[in-house]
Design goal:
about 210 residues, mainly alpha, Arc Repressor Mutant, subunit A, elongated
């Protein structure tokens, strides 16, 4: 291969790498603004946070919806990092303890992103689709962890499932944290108590202590 071609390839690779860094910086800047309470960040504020020109925002993203959608992909990565498999064959009290702790941890980490996404979703099909995808994943996870109880609940399976979904939802978490001003520990304890009551309504007790890890 000619030396000139190698130099050209290197220049292209360098531009691609710089472009990828700028794109990543814009997503990170959007996340930083959202986490700081700016739930509707504008292109100028995002560009300033990232240390680039406003023109760069629209060089790398077709529009702000595309940028916010990529932020949603970053949020899914965050959820995966915060989540660990829970064996459905573990004793129910231990599964409840692990599931509640994990779901509350995810809800807290996702709180600012969910707030921002809630504002964007009514006018953004892409963000609505991401909400639906997140809901489907959370639902599937709940069904997996408590599959034995749901399978054995008979006519009580539907209300048991709904009760668990509602009690561990981000909406309830936001109510505890934002509206009522409860701490993370207080909110987690409230969710745990409600989940125990939901299981009690299905004739199942989670009051026995979970084995220590």
């Amino acid at each position: 291969m000619a030396a000139g071609a190698r130099r050209d390839d290197g220049a292209v690779d360098g531009r691609a790498a710089r472009g990828a860094r700028t794109r990543s910086a814009l997503v990170d800047a959007t996340l930083a603004l959202v986490e700081a309470g700016d739930l509707r960040p504008t292109a100028p504020r995002i560009a300033e946070q990232a240390g680039v020109s406003v023109r760069s925002v629209f060089q790398h993203f077709d529009d702000l919806e595309t940028l916010f959608s990529e932020l949603g992909d970053l949020a899914f990565d965050r959820i995966r990092r915060l989540s660990e498999p829970i064996d459905p064959e573990l004793p129910l009290p231990e599964r409840v303890e692990r599931f509640v702790a994990q779901r509350c941890r995810v809800n807290e980490a996702m709180d600012p992103i969910n707030k921002a996404a809630s504002l964007q979703a009514p006018t953004s099909p892409a963000i609505r689709a991401q909400f639906e995808r997140g809901h489907e994943r959370a639902t599937a996870h709940l069904r997996l962890v408590f599959g034995p109880e749901l399978a054995a609940a008979g006519d009580r399976a539907a209300p048991l499932f709904d009760g668990l979904r509602f009690a561990t939802s981000w909406t309830i978490w936001n109510l505890c944290r934002e509206t009522e001003g409860r701490s993370v520990a207080e909110s987690t304890d409230a969710v745990r108590r409600v989940v125990a009551l939901v299981f009690a309504g299905a004739g199942l007790s989670v009051d026995e202590p979970a084995p220590s890890s």
